[in-house]
Structure formats: structure tokens, C-alpha cells
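Q: How would the C-alpha cells look for this protein?
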Amino acid sequence: MTTIITKESLDQELAEKGYQILEKIGEGGSRIVFKAKRDLVADPVVVKVFKQDNVHERIVSKRESSSLEQMFSRELEVIRRFSHPNLVRCFNHGAVNGSYFLEEEYMEGGSLASHLGSLSEDQIQRLFVDVANGVGYLHSKGFYVRDFKLDNVLTDKELSIAKISDLELAGRIEASKGTLGSERYAAPELEQGRRSNPIKTDIFALGCGLYYLLTGQDVAFRGMNHLPETEYNSLLVDMMGIVDERYRATLIACLSFDPQERFDSALDLAEAIPDKNLIKKVVFAGKTGKTPPSTYIHRLNVLVRDLEEKDVIQIPEILGYCFQKHNIFKKPRALVIQYVRESNLSNGQKGGGWLTYERDGEIEGCMLLRPLDLDVAGTHMRVNYNHVGARRGFSDSSIISTLIEAADRKLGRYLQSRGIQTAKVRINLAPDELELIDPLKKAGFSPEGTLHDHYRLGENVEVYEKLVKNL
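A: Here is the predicted structure in C-alpha cell form.
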């Protein structure tokens, strides 16, 4: 027997629970969405009622192994257990009309899919980073999205924030069975029945979302993910032709046929979006500007100086050796080189950028000075020291210490030139970077605690910080 869910059929039951249905605003593969008012609450809310009939075929296949009640409970586990700025908030839930409902926050801007072709590049960057951060948060908690698509990403009226919604198919990473989501976002290994890694399939889906946002069309990967590897790769290269070259390497690192060639985490992907820190660029207004390459330490045959173009090709080799497992430096060489160039340009405009340790004309070490933000008064900034490494590894404390000394000098010059009083410097150490602790302590850094699952799932980072003053 078919159960038809209409506004009229829900009015009485939901009225008894304190809701007034205003209008139907959407319908997906598994649920119908209503805008509603709740007693004693001024702002409108969303009421989502799960369909029992006429659901999408991919939802049907999932419900054959799990009852509606089990799937409803699984989604509740995710949205009620976790809280993140880029996940839609759930306020209430219950049974209605022989099914179940969720009460969620109302996002007046609608889905990101509804804005395809009308977003500026700045909006695309900001909203996509929001999405990647939300997915990365779920991964850090042991869950994956499984059915990511722009239709399930909502935004506010001002298009200032993006939040992930509709997590009916979300599941635990450790219990992944490679369930298919939407065909337009499904990785080749899912469509072809091959073994899959749930984080890598989420990364692929995010890459599809980014491609659709940049091109304004959302059908490119439908059917393509059934192709054999050679044909897939050839078509993927052709598809990059309509995308700005600044995004191509990032997209390929999401959409590679081979899952091992994709980003290891959604947070890595967020970091790869060019010039994503739009608010920070505004905060630095009047305090940015390209500066010529400088030398910060010159001792006998050793120079520590700003990165030059001729140095770029050596960075992947140095840091690829240092990091046995890394989110960026184990990627294809071309992607690493692009990352080095772009990060040097974007951070150089704010007083940061890459430093190189040169001995007798050979580059033996490097690091990235990354300014994060500046307070409104323009007196205090936050800075990260990233990717500190030497050709012989992290154990080469002499090179590491000299690089940090040069970074402090570079930062100090910037503080003086811009009238900034202090800078809080942070460096996060993953498990394979712990040999850096002694040089950091000698340079004045102190331990500040641990961040859990910050870079790679299941791995913590040790946080070290110090204050640099404008003397």
C-alpha cells in the first residue's frame, strides 16, 4: 500500500507536536521537506519527513539491508552526536504519519546546487572550504558522508556559510561496505564494484562538487565513472580544459581514477584551494604587498633566504624524504610543485612564504612561514611555521635550527615594517615530525597541548608555540 505524504496529511499530527506547516519546499530521494513554524520559536524551521514509498533506487537498495528505523537512528547518531559550524543543526525528531521526521535549522539560501552558475569565484572558494571542513570533521569522528552532493549542502540567504545536510547514508568508516551514493558524484571504484576506501570516495565526491561549482554544470561525471582507467584519464584531462589552471591539479588530486592518487583527507583538500582565506586578506588590507627576495642568514658558505623559482623543483625531493607519510608531499610531483608556488605567492603577500637553506649553491632544507590573521587593531598576528625539513631528514638539527632562526628574523622584519607589536607562532608536529622537538625548545617554543585527529585520521599532533615581539 502506497503512503502519500502531503501537507494536509501531516497538519494535524504535527500540530499536536507544536508545528505549523507553512509550505513544501523540496523533495529528495528519501524525504519530503517542509518549511514550518514551531510554537514559541520566532524563526522558521525545516521539518523533513522520511518517505516510505517512491524513494530513489539507491535508497531502496540500502533499505533492503537496513530498516527505515535503523537508517533514521543512524542519521540521528551523526547529527545529534556531533556539532560543527558546517553541519546543519538538528533540534528535534520523532514519529509522524507512520514514518519519522527531523526538525532542523532553516537555511534560507537553499542548496548550493540551486546556485550553480551564479556564484562568484570568491563565494565558490569560501563555501567549498566550508563544505570540505564539514566533511573533514565527520572523518575525524570516524564517519563518512557516502552520499555527498551539492543538493545536500545548504547556505544562508547571504551565501556566507555552507552546511551539510541529509546524512541518511552516512556510516562508520570502519564498517564501510562501499554503498553507492549519487551517480553524478560516485567514484569509479564504486560504480565498477571494486574495493573502496570511504574517505577516498568522499574526496572524489567533493572533487565533483568543486568541478560543478567552477563550471556551473552538474552532469559531467554521470556515465564517465563506468569507463576503464585509460579512457577515464583521457576524458578527465579533456575536462580540465574549461577550468582555470589554478584549480586543475587540485581537481585531479580529487578525481584520479586510482584512489591512492587522491588527497588523503578533506582538510588537505581545503588547504589546496587557492587564495581561500578571503577574510584574512581583508584583515591584512594595507599590510600586504609583494616584497623582493631577501637573505636572513649568511654564514660562510650557508645562505638562508626567500625561495626563488629555481629552488621550487627541489622542495618535493627534500620534504618527500622527510615525511614518510604526508598529506601533500606524497602526492604527484607536479601537484607538489604547484602547491609550493601557490603557497609561496599567497603567503608572501602577508610577510610569509618559503625559506630555503642553501650550502655551496645546493638547497639542503626549507620551511614555510604562513601568516594566519591579524587582529582588528593591527597590533597582533598569528603565524604558523609549516613543512620544516632538511635533505637528510628531521634529525639534522643544525639545518632545522638555522631555518627557524631565519624565520624568526623574517617575521621580526615584517612586524617592524608594518608596526605590528607581537606575533604568536605555532608549529604542529605530526608523529613523524617529533624529532623537531629539541630544536624547537632551543628556539624558545613551549608545548601547548595535543590536537586530536588534526591531519590524518587516528593521528594526533603536538602543538608548540612562542611569542615573537617587535623589538
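Residues 276-291 have pLDDT under 50 and may be disordered.

The first helix runs from residue 7 to 16.

Upvote if useful.
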